[in-house]
């Protein structure tokens, strides 16, 4: 596979991860809910096991309100890293919003795993129990032939219940952040 095709796939994967937000809903978490899960710095977004210098460059900067600003090749994002479970201190729910959208805008949700000093992200799939739970919560499921199904959760408790289940089941992670400014 050529370098261009690899880079294109990576950009498309990150865009799908953030833009489609396979799981989305209202922005329930405020910056005060957030913790410092990833140090400020420059990172490359790569496929797990891929060359560390092959991915898009992202800059993560903690803001005065405790949120994190993510800048890179696309629009800036506002992220809040929320601990999922005290029994799993290395797993986080990441609430993502376009930085210009304001706190009332809907958000996308991804998972972050920080075990072993790595930062791996996963977009939970909208299928099975998650799909059914989103619909039961008063939310909905949208289907897109390019990005697959997206779950919109209408209540926070249902989202968190599904996140805790996904953390237990989720085996693979879509992308990894590799420190680029060391």
UniProtKB/TrEMBL annotation:
Q: Keyword set for this entry?
A: Signal
* Signal sequence residues: 1-29
Name used for this protein in its record: Uncharacterized protein
Instruction: Record the organism.
Output: Sphingomonas alpina
Alphabetical list of PROSITE patterns matching this protein: PROKAR_LIPOPROTEIN (PS51257)
Can you tell which superkingdom this protein's organism belongs to?
Bacteria
């Amino acid at each position: 596979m050529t370098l261009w095709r690899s880079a294109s796939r990576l950009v498309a994967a990150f865009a799908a991860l953030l833009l489609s937000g396979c799981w989305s809903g209202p922005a329930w978490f405020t910056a005060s809910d957030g913790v410092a899960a990833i140090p400020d710095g420059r990172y490359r977004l790569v496929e797990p096991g891929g060359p560390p210098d092959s991915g898009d460059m992202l800059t993560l900067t903690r803001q005065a309100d405790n949120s994190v600003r993510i800048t890179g090749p696309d629009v800036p994002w506002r992220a809040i890293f929320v601990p999922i479970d005290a029994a799993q201190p290395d797993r986080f729910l990441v609430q993502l919003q376009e930085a210009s959208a304001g706190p009332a805008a809907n958000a996308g949700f991804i998972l972050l795993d920080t075990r072993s000093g790595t930062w791996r992200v996963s977009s939970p799939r909208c299928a099975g129990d998650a799909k059914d739970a989103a619909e039961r919560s008063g939310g909905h499921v949208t289907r897109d032939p390019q990005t697959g199904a997206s779950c919109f959760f209408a209540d926070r408790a249902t989202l968190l219940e599904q996140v805790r289940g996904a953390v237990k089941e989720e085996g693979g992670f879509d992308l990894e952040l590799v420190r680029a400014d060391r």
